[in-house]
Amino acid sequence: MRARLKSASVNRGGGDAVYGLGLIGAAIYYFQHATSFWLVIVGIFKAIFWPAFLVHAFLTFLHL
User: 18, 30, 46, 64 — which has fewest CB within 10 A?
Assistant: First the structure.
């Protein structure tokens, strides 16, 4: 019989866990500072996309 080829396994290196912890931490931070419903909505958006804000601030700091 022919041996079945197993598909390659990809090791992500734990990046998902780091992003998840960052998401939770950012959400808690933004929720604590929210004073209205709309600031909670903005906080959810910022908590999801915090890496993009971080990269933008870093590139601005480097003047690129």
Answer: 64
| Terminal-to-terminal C-alpha distance of the chain | 59
3-state secondary structure of 21: helix
Q: Is the dihedral of CA 53, 59, 63, 64 positive or negative?
A: negative
Cα–Cα distance between 24 and 18 in angstroms, integer? 10
Summarised one tens digit per residue, pLDDT across range 21-44 is 889 999 999 999 999 999 999 999
Q: Which long-range contacts (CB under 8 A, 24 or more apart) does 47-50 make?
A: 47/23, 48/23, 50/22, 50/23, 50/26
- Distance between CA atoms of residues 10 and 15, nearest Å: 12
Alpha-carbon gap, residue 33 to 1, rounded angstroms: 64
